[in-house]
Amino acid sequence: MKFWVAVLLSFLPLWAQAVELGERLAPWTLLDQFDQAYTLDNQAQVLLVARSMDAAKQVDAALQGQPKGYLEARHVVFVADIQRMPRLIAKLFAVPAMQAYNYRVMLDRDARIAVRYPAPVDKVLWLQLEDGKLVARHEYASAAELRQALEQVQP
Fold first, then answer.
1. 143-152 vs 53-63: helix axis angle to the nearest 10?
2. Which keywords are on file for this protein (predicted)?
């Protein structure tokens, strides 16, 4: 019995942190691929969350050919959950490769932020924000769908 109580209590933080429509997102700060800090604020209109390498590749494919500053102009913030990646691989290969991207990637190295926004691991989570509140939620399984959605966001 104690085991099951412990298991249930271990999942409590995940349930407590999941954000619902109409709720204000708690502010957080992450470093990007250049170790520059970014703090989520009320200016963000869209939060993209990739919880796997496959999902992050969808974002990259959707942004191919877009100019530098494309996401920033649309007030879109991209968070990549890289906590499952071995730290040495991230430091030596993955993060330096991300520095060639023409967009900013907020790196969730310790699974502090991405876990707040549950979604299937193989899809890109789109959280539509208005003054810091969640107003809509979508999941994209393909780069083409994501690209089309991004094109609808006004700069």
1. 50
2. Signal
